TrEMBL record:
Keywords: DNA-binding, Transcription, Transcription regulation. Residues 3-60 form the HTH lysR-type domain. This is HTH lysR-type domain-containing protein. CDD domains: PBP2_LTTR_substrate. One of its GO terms (molecular function) is DNA-binding transcription factor activity. Gene3D superfamilies: 3.40.190.290, Winged helix-like DNA-binding domain superfamily/Winged helix DNA-binding domain (1.10.10.10). Belongs to the LysR transcriptional regulatory family. InterPro entries: LysR_HTH_N, LysR_subst-bd, WH-like_DNA-bd_sf, WH_DNA-bd_sf.
Amino acid sequence: MHMDLTLYKTLLEVGKWQNYTKASEKLGYAQSSVTSQIQKLEIEYGVEIFERIDKKMRPTPAGEILLRYAAKILKLYEESKINVAGQTTGSFMIGTHETTLFSYMLPPFLGAFKKCFPNITITINELLENDTFRALKAGECDLGFIVDRELSDPDLLFRKIQEEEFVIVAAPDHPLAMKSSIVPEDLNGSEILMSPSGGRCRKLFETMLRKHNVHYTLTYEINSYETIKKCAMYGLGLCLLPKTTVASETQNGQLAILPLNYPNFKLTVQLCYHAKRQLSVPMKNFIQLMCETIPHEPLFLAQSNIAQPL
């Protein structure tokens, strides 16, 4: 049987009044139409739905069961209209290689999103740096969170969220922390902490060090901003980190930002997604909320190839 909700609505009305004439009046149908609809249901289910006993019409045992199902079907239908239109349930996945920075940025507005969409689950999937674009194009994640130069790709849309400043930090008693101003050459001979090779933060740091012919000792390679910070606090070396991630430690005196006179330690925080992807209502609201919370520029469509690494 082709799903016809009208039949179930008619069934419930007849069940309510237990009278074809009364039901037809309430529905605005001819009585013959109401009778015909009930007969269609009886043929489909192969049972008698109503019976007459002592001139009274009442549901049969099978009819009682069908009435309960009809009520559930119509209730689910109404719920589906609300949920499909508003997309108030479901989930989406964000892929990123910058889970630490994202964890610092996310909490301030995630609560506001949850108030509007309490039944939406957000999964944050940690990816290798070069996997975010591949995952977006393959449909393995819905949104990508990246920290890089402003990038472009013909298959992706990018939303600039903010510029993130990177700073060199060290223990407060480090000799360079005592100076009022330093230049890159002052880092000669320093012990330095870095993330593993290939990370954007490390590339940014290494580019500056090479440009100014700075010789240094790589003391530790650590794949965790938090661990790098702890090592720096204990005087194990200098490190370059997003300013957002060291705000608390620099404010309470656990770390010091070196007063380096160097203007290019900035990258762009961006959200991206497939250009042909139909964004759900929650995803659109998530992007809008994030961009309203943090200064941003308008949506832009990439026109050229992906920018090459620094």
